[in-house]
C-alpha cells in the first residue's frame, strides 16, 4: 500500500475500533474492552451507535436464521466437554454482522469482506454533515465467473470521492484494471485506472455526479495498458456490483 492508505489518522482510530466492534471481527478480550470504553465514554458509545445504525441497513437485507437446537450439543461433543442441555433461550448474536448466516447469505468470506468494507467506509467517511446529510453508497463487485467478491467500493455522501478496496487477490495480469460507472439505463463511463492489490481513491468527474446514486452500478474490466482506447470497456469485464446507500 502507499502512504495514503497504510495509516489511519489518529482521529479515525476510534471510528475504526467502533466499526470493527459492530462488524463482529474483534476477539473476546477486545470486545470486552470496547464495551468498557462505551460505558465510560459517551462520545465513543455514540460512535458505536452510529455505526450500528449505518451498517444495520445492510444487515436488514438478510433474512434471520437460527441454527437447530442440537447444533450446540454437537459442537460441545466434538470438543470433548461435559454434555449440555439445549437451551432454546440462547440469544442470537448481538450483531447481525457477527452472524455466520449473514456472511453466508452474501456468499463472501467474513474476513475479506469485513476488512474491505471497513477500509472503504473509513476512507470515505461515515458521518453525515449538515451539507451532506446522506449516507455513503456501497457496492460489492462480484466476479462474473467466480461469483466471489473482487472489490468493495464506497462513494462519499456528496458523490465526489470514491474508494475501492480489493476483497480478494487477483492473478497477475499485465493488462490495466479500469473502473466504470454504469448509470441506470446508460452507457458505462470510465472512473479511471485502479490497482488490483491495494485501495485506491478516485475523484468522481463533475459531469458524472448526477448519475451517481441508487440504480447505478460499478464494473471492473481488464484493458490494454493505459486503459480503454475507446472510452468504453473493450476487454473482459471481471466484476460488477450495484450501488446501494447505507
How confident overall, as mean pLDDT?
73
Question: Can you tell me the CATH class of the largest domain?
Answer: Mainly Beta
Low-confidence stretches: 1-7, 86-111
CATH superfamily of the largest domain: Superoxide dismutase, copper/zinc binding domain
Q: Termini, distance in Å?
A: 27 Å
**Looking at CATH, which topology of the largest domain would you report?**
Immunoglobulin-like
| Class derived from helix and strand content | alpha+beta
Helix count? 7
Count of the separate structural domains: 2
Brief digest:
The chain has seven helices and nine strands.
What does this structure look like?
The chain has 7 helices and 9 strands; from the N terminus they run H-H-H-H-H-H-H-E-E-E-E-E-E-E-E-E. Helix 2 packs across helix 4 and helix 3 packs across helix 4 (42-59). It folds into 2 domains: 1-106, no CATH class; 128-246, Immunoglobulin-like, CATH 2.60.40.200. The relative contact order is 0.13. The two termini are 27 Å apart. The protein is globular, with a radius of gyration of 20 Å. Helix content is 33%, strand content 21%. It has helices at residues 3-6, 10-23, 28-40, 42-59, 70-79, 100-106, 110-124; strands at 137-143, 149-155, 161-166, 176-182, 189-194, 200-203, 217-223, 237-242, 244-245. Strands 1, 2, 3, 4, 5, 6, 7, 8 and 9 form a 9-stranded antiparallel sheet that branches. It is of the alpha+beta class.
Amino acid at each position: 500500500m502507499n502512504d495514503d492508505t497504510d495509516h489511519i489518522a489518529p482521529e479515525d482510530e476510534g471510528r475504526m475500533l467502533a466499526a470493527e466492534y459492530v462488524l463482529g471481527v474483534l476477539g473476546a478480550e477486545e470486545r470486552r474492552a470496547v464495551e468498557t470504553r462505551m460505558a465510560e465514554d459517551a462520545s465513543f458509545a455514540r460512535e458505536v451507535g452510529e455505526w450500528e445504525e449505518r451498517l444495520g441497513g445492510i444487515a436488514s437485507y438478510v433474512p434471520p436464521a437460527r441454527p437447530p437446537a442440537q447444533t450446540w450439543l454437537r459442537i460441545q461433543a466434538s470438543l470433548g466437554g461435559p454434555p449440555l442441555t439445549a437451551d432454546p433461550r440462547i440469544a442470537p448474536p448481538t450483531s447481525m454482522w457477527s452472524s455466520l448466516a449473514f456472511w453466508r447469505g452474501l456468499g463472501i468470506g467474513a474476513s475479506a469482506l469485513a476488512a474491505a468494507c471497513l477500509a472503504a467506509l473509513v476512507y470515505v467517511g461515515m458521518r453525515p454533515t449538515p451539507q451532506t446529510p446522506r449516507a455513503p453508497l456501497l457496492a460489492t463487485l462480484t466476479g462474473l465467473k467466480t461469483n466471489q467478491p473482487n472489490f468493495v467500493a464506497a462513494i462519499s455522501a456528496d458523490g465526489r470521492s470514491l474508494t475501492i478496496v480489493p476483497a480478494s487477490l487477483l492473478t497477475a495480469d499485465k493488462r490495466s484494471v479500469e473502473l466504470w460507472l454504469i448509470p441506470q439505463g446508460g452507457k458505462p463511463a470510465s472512473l479511471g485506472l485502479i490497482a488490483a492489490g491495494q485501495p485506491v481513491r478516485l475523484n468522481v468527474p463533475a459531469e458524472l455526479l448526477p448519475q451517481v446514486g441508487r440504480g447505478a452500478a460499478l464494473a471492473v474490466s481488464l484493458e490494454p495498458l493505459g486503459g480503454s482506447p475507446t472510452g468504453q470497456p473493450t476487454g473482459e469485464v471481471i466484476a460488477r456490483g450495484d450501488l446501494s446507500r447505507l
